Amino acid sequence: MKIEIRGVEKLSFRERQVVALKEMGKSSEEIAKQLKLSASSVATLLHRARTKGYQVVIVLPGDALGIFGEEEEV
Asked: Where are the transmembrane segments (predicted)?
């Protein structure tokens, strides 16, 4: 699985870090601890990132979903 952030060029480095960690399922408290920030700073960075209009896309290979396989023989 890959996570793609579209519009990432609009985000600051810290905003990119916070968004990526949040999309990986980390809580704001976990992000704050990992990046050595306060929880309020994490909330502010997430808010700023959202106002800049990024979009997160999860890229999954088709075989991981079991929908692409060998063609059935007729």
From this structure: none
Instruction: Give residue 63's Cα distance to chain centre.
Output: 22
Residue type, 69: G
With a CB cutoff of 8 Å and minimum separation 6, the contacts of 25 are: none
Which domains, from first to last, does the chain contain? 2-65 (1.10.10.10)
**Residue 1: CA count within 13 A, CB half-sphere:** 7
For the stretch 23-30, contacts whose Cβ atoms lie closer than 8 Å and that sit 24 or more positions apart, written own/partner, are 23/56
pLDDT at 40: 97
For range 32-61, the mean pLDDT: 93
- The C-alpha atoms of residue 42 and residue 54 are separated, in whole angstroms, by 17
CA angle, 36 as apex, 33 and 38 as ends, to 5°?
Answer: 80
